[in-house]
Write a structure and sequence with these properties.
Elements: H1 2-25, H2 28-39, E1 46-50, H3 57-73, E2 77-81, H4 88-95, E3 103-108, H5 109-118, H6 126-129, E4 130-139, E5 141-145, H7 154-163, E6 169-172, H8 178-190, E7 195-198, H9 203-209, E8 215-219, H10 220-228, E9 233-237, E10 264-271, H11 276-289, H12 294-300, E11 303-306, H13 309-330
Parallel strand pairs: 1-2, 1-3, 6-7, 6-8
Antiparallel strand pairs: 3-10, 4-10, 4-11, 5-8, 5-9
Helix pairs in contact: 5-13
Length: 335
């Protein structure tokens, strides 16, 4: 019995020794050194992953923000495109990366708020495996028709759509995109049955301009050039408030459908587990550099937002709930 008690005492003493050694490792000098590494962030190039091809809205925003962050920190912020699977490939790559602030993503509404419902076999959860840093820009969708269509206002569009119930069609940039789901939401409100024709790439706009497609929702940056050239007629924007990029175009809400909101947005996220000090530093830095991007963003169709990581987190959750209902109502799904 005495031997057993002695053995237990020695085990406890050994455990205490390990604990004391561990505490010694966390000496004030060590803590200060660790904090210094965070204060010095970034000390090497930072990768910003874009889950779509170069030249798109996400890519343009990422490169604009990355350039100014490079200038601010005197350290490279390099954009790397990893397209595929509706944005899932690139964002999963980021979620699986080291949570040290050196791999980030600038992503849009689809991969973050829509895909968790749209994709039935998603291999990661963007809502829990990516940490919001900052909501960079709100990008409304705009309802477009060809000049060949005898429609010049939203009121005339409603009358046209109801008269052509079951025969009217619309294009989108793909199943489950905000372009597609915005049309689903609007047709549900109007009680109109419309045929969806999904596209990949610029052909959707080409067929709309040619009059082979009746209407389409598209992000303002992707069509602002065609609108200014008179190739497409904008009827309404999908945001609650008018876009600063198209101030003369009314909202759906203004036309008797309060609460209608179905635009796109773009924000920065990091792997979950990234030190909060780095999240805060990135958030503050992007808020600062966005001041220099405001005029450019607005001219290209994006409304700058900014604000805190907590704001972005709550915003994403609200978007997820909204789009979950729309996706389930539409019956859209991807494997």
């Amino acid at each position: 019995m005495l031997t057993l008690r002695l053995l237990r005492a020695r085990c406890v003493a050994g455990a205490l020794s390990v604990l004391l050694v561990s505490l010694a490792l966390l000496s004030p000098a060590t803590i200060v050194k660790a904090q210094s590494r965070l204060d010095d962030y970034p000390t090497k190039p930072v990768k910003i992953v874009v889950s779509f091809t170069a030249g798109g809205t996400t890519d343009v925003i990422a490169r604009s923000v990355g350039q100014l962050l490079s200038e601010k920190f005197k350290q490279s912020f390099i954009v790397e495109n990893k397209p595929g699977s509706g944005g899932n490939i690139g964002n999963e790559y980021v979620a699986r990366s080291a949570a040290d602030g050196y791999t980030l993503t600038i992503a849009s509404v689809g991969p973050i708020a829509v895909n968790p419902t749209l994709f039935k076999n998603l291999r990661y959860n963007p809502l829990t495996e990516l940490t919001p840093v900052i909501l960079i820009a709100d990008v409304p969708n705009v309802l477009l028709v060809s000049p060949k269509l005898p429609v010049h206002s939203f009121k005339e569009f409603i009358a046209y759509a109801k008269a052509a119930n079951g025969k009217i069609n619309y294009s989108s940039t793909g199943v489950g995109t905000s372009s597609h789901l915005s049309s689903v939401m609007l047709m549900d409100l109007l009680g109109v049955d419309a045929q969806h024709i999904p596209y990949k790439g610029a052909e959707a706009l080409n067929d709309l301009i040619a009059g082979r497609i009746d209407f389409m929702f598209a992000t303002i940056p992707s069509v602002i050039g065609q609108i200014k050239a008179g190739k497409l007629n904008p009827l309404v924007v999908s945001s609650l408030n008018r876009s600063r990029s198209l101030p003369d175009v009314p909202t759906v809400a203004e036309n008797g459908y309060p609460g209608f909101s179905s635009g796109s947005w773009f924000g920065m996220l990091a792997p979950t587990g990234t030190p909060p000090e780095i999240i805060t530093k990135l958030n503050q830095s992007v808020n600062e550099v966005m001041v220099g991007l405001e005029e450019r963003f607005v001219s290209e169709g994006a409304d700058p937002v900014g604000k805190s990581p907590e704001f972005f987190k709550a915003f994403i959750q609200a978007e997820y709930v909204k789009w979950k209902a729309v996706v389930e109502s539409s019956g859209a799904s991807e494997k």
